[in-house]
Specification:
Helix content is 20%, strand content 40%. The protein is α+β, with helices and mostly antiparallel strands. It has 2 domains: 198 residues, PmbA/TldD superfamily (PmbA/TldD fold, 2-Layer Sandwich), CATH 3.30.2290; 222 residues, no CATH class. Helix 1 crosses helix 2 and helix 3 runs parallel beside helix 4. The termini are far apart. The mean pLDDT is 95.
Length: 430
């Protein structure tokens, strides 16, 4: 079906332009959710979307539709749109190239009953743990896209994603505590029982928190807390931000920007990665790009347009859907520490499970002030006491300049594949 649509669009586009790109996406999604302990909502949605870009006389035009029968009209609209746009010689389409298969990003065998069973397992586990579920949900998505352009490029990408989330309340001695967490995998291997037990454990352990004064201390960022604070950090590697002087990393290639213990990679081919694919949204083959090696800044990331602006090659970081043009963005960001320490080696510290307000961090400077959520004091190498309320204040670039990995599993949270991270350059404000 996708190739037939693309061929129809190609025949029509050749009447108007020599350079064009057709992006067709077929998407199926399934959503389940509960109110308290009752599974009460289910939704399935199927979409076919078509996005067409053209280049004519160094001008680009774009149009899209969710009606496959309108592909000819959309081709004409893309051509007409380019006439009113400004000249820009940096627009280009990907060249024909070789692609390699990426493992563990598509699950063909999923059945809806498995999603229902997962939800029931989560809710039953919460009940067994004597907690109260306030919300829980499951989401499954299956995407298949075809990219075809006038450079004889033709590439298909298939991916799936499964996620579950849970929020609970725990009660003791007229006190209440709340906790939240989520899990994700491209392959359906989610453990609902573990999610339920882990979230309930955090909620119960958070009851009866103590107050803290203002401290400069070792701060352990759990997975969710770390991923929340890393978003302004990773935006500094965006080649378009660098070009526009919106990155603090501009002019710092070859210099140390983080701890010498740390190397960072953007890997669009990572097996089982949230953003892994055969190609990016422009058809450029996905690759592994070394951003930082032993603390030294090595590379930025680029899509075709930003790469042409800067006189370099695309790193395969042009991401899009059918309704948008490509945007330069990271794929799977991997943090690799040479050595890691055990929590037993921390005499006095602060463990933060999650943060609130990470979106307010300054995306250029990296400065932030966020509320810690489900936090604990570390004393003599052990998690000792829950903390009622506290803020974490600092700069993420400074925080990573003196950091270590904590001995823990490597997990994907959002776009980041990370261990728990120990930072020595953050302030705790009670």
């Amino acid at each position: 079906m996708l190739y037939e649509l693309a061929e129809e669009g190609t025949r029509h586009l050749k009447k108007y332009v020599d350079e064009f790109e057709i992006f067709i996406e077929k998407d199926k999604s399934i959503e389940l959710s509960s109110e308290k302990s009752v599974l009460n909502f289910a939704k399935r949605e199927d979409t076919v979307g078509i996005g067409i870009r053209v280049i004519k006389d160094n001008k680009t035009g774009f149009a899209y539709t969710t009606n496959p029968e309108k592909i000819i009209q959309i081709a004409e609209k893309a051509f007409l749109n380019c006439k009113s746009n400004e000249l820009d010689k940096n627009f280009a389409f990907a060249k024909n190239q070789k692609y390699k298969k990426v493992e563990e990003i598509f699950d063909k065998g999923f059945d809806l009953d498995e999603g229902t069973d997962l939800m029931n397992t989560i809710l039953n586990t919460v009940e067994d743990e004597k907690c109260e579920s306030t919300s829980a949900g499951f989401f499954a998505n299956f995407t298949h896209n075809l990219i075809l352009n006038s450079n004889d490029l033709s590439v298909e990408n298939s991916s799936s994603g499964f996620s579950g989330y849970l929020t609970v309340n725990a009660y003791k001695n007229n006190e209440k505590s709340t906790a939240y967490d989520s899990i994700f995998s491209p392959i359906f291997n989610l453990n609902g029982e573990k999610l339920g037990r882990d979230v309930c454990k955090i909620a119960k352990n958070s009851i009866g928190g103590v107050k803290v004064d203002n401290y400069d201390m070792d701060v352990v960022l759990d997975y969710a807390a770390a991923s929340g604070l890393l978003n302004p950090f990773i935006s500094g590697f965006n080649g378009d931000n660098v070009r526009r002087s919106r990155s603090i990393l501009k002019d710092k290639l070859g210099t140390r920007i983080v701890s010498e213990e740390l190397s960072i990679y953007d890997d669009g081919r990572y097996p089982g990665g949230f953003n892994s694919s055969v190609s990016d949204g422009e058809g450029t083959s996905s690759q592994r790009t070394t951003l930082v090696k032993d603390g030294i800044l090595k590379n930025f990331i680029f899509d075709i347009y930003s790469a042409n602006k800067c006189g370099v090659e695309s790193t395969g970081n042009g991401f899009r859907g059918y309704s948008s043009t490509p945007t330069n963005s990271h794929s799977n960001v991997i943090f690799n520490f040479k050595n890691s320490i055990d929590i037993s080696e921390i005499d006095k510290g602060f463990l933060v499970t999650d943060v609130l307000g990470a979106h307010t961090a300054n995306p250029i400077s990296g400065d932030f002030s966020v509320e810690s959520n489900n936090s604990f004091l570390i004393e003599n190498g052990e998690i000792a006491k829950p903390v009622k309320k506290a803020m974490i204040v600092g700069n993420i670039f400074d925080g990573l300049s003196n950091c270590q990995g904590l001995k823990s599993d490597l997990r994907q949270k959002g776009s980041f594949i990370i261990p728990k991270i120990l930072s020595k350059n953050l302030k705790v404000v009670g």
